[in-house]
Amino acid sequence: MFFCPNCGKEVSEEDRFCRSCGQTLPGPTVQKSTSQARTVPEVEQVRSSLSKHIRQGEKVLWIGKPEKIPFVIPIMGTIPVGLVFMGFSIFWMWTATSTGAPWPFALFGLPFVLISIGITFGSPIWQLMRYQNTEYMITDQRIIT
Question: How far is 113 from 115, CA to CA, in rounded Å?
Fold first, then answer.
């Protein structure tokens, strides 16, 4: 068994590049491992944000990111709702100003426009930030997220 020295994924002996991270592999003597787990200095090479949580002597078995689909699916429902809410709010303000209503009455729709912008664009930004900042690490002692 051979493992990439950068990400720890299993690679074949013939590979010149890691298929996971793209790292150039150092010839036929890639890091050999007979079920040896990586230790703290090797985790720092991976540049994981979770490496600072590793205890002395703790062995890292796996590091990875979640799938993107569970983070994208909640976005699918909020965008259409936000757009409908935004359309109604803008329609309210436009109708109020075009009929000659007093300006405080026309501005009554402004908070609703702002709320609809938050619903439409806030949820996708929040979910993508959650995805980018989520990482998993399994060690011989615990699971770290």
Answer: 5
